[in-house]
Amino acid sequence: MVENKNIFEIKDFNIYYGHFMAVKSVTLNIEAHKITAIIGPSGCGKSTLLRSLNRMNDLIINSWVEGQALFHGVDIYHKDTDVIELRRRVGMVFQKPNPFPSSVYENVTYGPRIRGIKKKSQLDETVEKALVRADLWKEVKDKLNESGMSLSGGQMQRLCIARSLAQEPEVLLFDEPTSALDPISTTNIENLLQELQKTVTIVIVTHNMQQAARVSDFTAFMYLGEMIEFGETDTLFVNPQNKLTEEYITGRFG
Amino acid sequence: MAVFDEELGNLKGKILNLGSMVEVAVRDSVCSLVERNSDLAKEVIEKDHLINALEVGIDEECVRLIALRQPMARDLRFITTAMKITTDLERMGDLAVNISERAVEINEEPHLKPYVNIPKMAEIVQGMLRDALDAFVQECSILPYTVIKRDDEVDDLTVRNFNELLTLMIQNPKIVPVAVKRTYVAKYLERIADHATNIAEMVIYMCKGKIIRHISPVEEP
Fold first, then answer.
1. Which option is the CATH number for B2-208: 1.20.58.220, 3.20.20.105, 1.10.101.10, 1.10.10.10?
2. How far is A249 from chain B (nearest CA, A)?
3. What is the tens place of the pLDDT at every residue in A214-254?
4. Interface predicted TM-score of the whole assembly (ipTM), two decimals
């Protein structure tokens, strides 16, 4: 049997906040071990769509969905879905670095502990592995017991990535992960994304088109809740097929 | 982004300026030969540095725009096209200089026979250049195909010119030095036509995002 390379299959998918339709009939496949970027102006529904992939929108009162959103062929919104397990497998990193107000070590072990891992040696190993994968180990290995909040912005963001990685997710969702960071920290995160791509699938929402162009394999352009164009990043930025995409990426919008 | 639009407009203006300087150089170089006007030939040779300077200026401007504006899509294709066709235009200027150099030499010698093929070639080549530049300005993807088509006519005339001169050379070996130079001139014109074809192909890329180079025969839109 040929393995399905699409980890998410979204079809005619609508997301509402009350009566407001934030995402309109979106169809999109997310390929495994690729970086997919979602771009578009503020309010276009890109973050809403991203959050629907691990049901973060459930936390917003009045939000509801229609249509199909499959993760490994299974309906994300089925009543039997284990949402906690879904969010373990599909992790998320936010715009503003949000480490827990506790030590670096505790930040990373929080998830594994909740899953019932108690053995010190196993936790130690998880911490080192996650921090190495997040390219933070060298910088913090001597201050694991210091507060996560004492790190620099870029380090905090990588700590949040390490915290997600400790859960051994298959997918990481990034919502504007570098918009609060300086250019060097941004480059670090971007390099990290391309490294992580080998082991996890990445979906990133970004306002920074150059970032989408730099890091992603596929790019989706959304406008007013609709998916205007989706394709290989090379094509979309050099020769977009849709006039709206063209106007947006060349900065001649509206 | 109004400032960027203005910068792109200025860039286009500079390329047009370069284009018209090259048009004049090509026209005058052929004129200096056909009308046996060596002063005009020397003028073309002397003015070539202006073309070179403008080429460098355009290149620098393109690099600056890429660095500072990070152009995407149509803008990106416009700027990369500008960089490439500028090189073609500058080379055409060099070839006009080569024609002028041969003209000065040929004009020193007795007139061999009336020019027939070379003026014909020059007319086609100048039309190709004009249309290629018009297509660039109008961002038209139809006109370039007519430019590309005419390249074959120039190639045919190059061969015909060579054969005719070859016959004369066999009949009268004394004329070989001058006749060979006349074959060179035709070859230079043929090269200019090739550069005009390059420009036309780049304009199609700019408009449609499709590279049609090295695809033979070129399919029309």
1. 1.20.58.220
2. 6
3. 999 999 999 999 999 999 999 999 999 999 999 999 988 86
4. 0.73
